[in-house]
Amino acid sequence: MKLLQIMRPRHWIKNIFLFAALVFGQKLAVPSALGRAIGGFFCFSLAASAVYIFNDIIDRKTDSAHPEKCKRPIAAGAISVSTATVMSIGCAVPAIIGSFVLARYFGIVILTYIVLMILYSLGLKRMMILDCVVISIGFCLRAIAGAVVVGVFISPWLIICTFALCLFLAFSKRRSEIAMLGEDSESFRQTLAGYSPELLAHMVDVTSGLAIVCFLLYAMDERTVARFGTVNLVYTTPLVLYCVFRLSALIQKGKFSGPVQLILADLPFQIGFVLWVLSCIAIIYADKLGISFGGT
Fold this sequence. Notes:
Layout: H1 2-6, H2 20-24, H3 31-58, H4 60-63, H5 73-76, H6 81-102, H7 104-122, H8 130-150, H9 156-181, H10 185-188, H11 197-220, H12 222-228, H13 237-252, H14 259-265, H15 267-284, H16 286-289
């Protein structure tokens, strides 16, 4: 059970970004593409777990003094460093091999992600703003990986939207950490010393607005309209606004330790997100589903 815990399977939800290309690339109804996307999801999840374990090994002393992270098996001493190291390698190897079996370029994306996250754990996470930028690039690699493994074109606007949205999530997490840890925040994460609640609130506002604008530009882009044969995707914006604003409001109140915890626990957010996904599927696959939208 402890070995499974250090893999952080709850955080595998982050890898749903891989399925974006499947949906927006109109491959959702193609069994082979769906199978490759699912395989890619598990490969990326194992790669992420390898990185999580490596990061926990590096941070075990700092985590042991953290009010929540001290419960992690490595920080608590329940799992030895040697066992954790073997586990990390045991996750990384099948992830890399499996990814290259699925698609050569998918394997390259997985390797790039692992190397980038190792560099993040070793030092980049101590650099203010750059720490959040690197995390966001990691999420963009997930989106790119999804497109590569399925074999579809992914709009640059969608990549930029993903980057801005993940910057928003990263800054939101920093804001949440400051709200929860208070004056002791910098002792648990060095970069928090350079942030202030006011600065992070501004960054959250800017990145959330940028993400929404990029989504609108993607929805109205000529290539998108030509591909889907409709501009109706833009009308899902109210659901996007609701999800972004609710996440921002709850995170800044310090009610959750991070976006993952909020996404897994907040029912209103979950309902809004599911409604957005279903709306996008209905619009993108309207012809196949026999749905007619007037004026498209």
